[in-house]
Specification:
Number of domains: 1
Helix content: 40-55%
Number of strands: 4
CATH superfamily: Response regulator
Structural class: alpha/beta
CATH architecture: 3-Layer(aba) Sandwich
């Protein structure tokens, strides 16, 4: 089983959108049983909060159930447990390295930072960037 953890600043916008969209795509490809997918934050700011309403709207398009998701912060145990820890932007990648040291598991979903809709308000753009990144990730992992 391949274990993937997506990470953004608060775990209410980008990383849960990525988590649930990857699960949705893997289910459609009949690969869901080969993966464990989750998400977390580098900060403590949103711990316990539900997914942002803009992300909920994007996931609702696909009838994805996200109701049990609450923001949580990444832990040292996560670094040991997950095979891939994928940050949404260079700032979060730097935060991971500051928190836990450099690690080959830490990488970006896209070479370009994924726009943070908390600041931009553009959840559609964020979705498009994540969708493209996930298709590339799935192709890499299938090999």
């Amino acid at each position: 089983m391949i274990k993937i953890l997506f990470v953004c600043h608060g775990n209410i916008c980008r990383s849960p959108m990525t988590e649930y969209l990857l699960k949705y795509k893997l289910e459609k490809l009949n690969l869901i049983d080969k993966f464990e997918v989750a998400s977390a934050a580098t900060s403590r700011e949103e711990i316990g909060n539900p997914i942002h309403y803009g992300t909920r709207k994007m996931l609702d398009r696909f009838n994805i159930d996200y109701s049990s998701k609450r923001a949580r912060q990444i832990t040292k145990e996560d670094v040991f447990y997950y095979d891939y820890i994928i940050a949404m932007d260079h700032n979060n990648l730097s935060n991971l390295e500051r928190m836990f040291g450099k690690n080959a598991k830490f990488q970006l979903l896209n070479a370009k930072d994924i726009a943070d809709p908390w600041y931009t308000g553009d959840f559609e753009l964020t979705y498009q960037e994540i969708d493209k990144g996930l298709d590339n990730l799935i192709n890499r992992l299938k090999k």
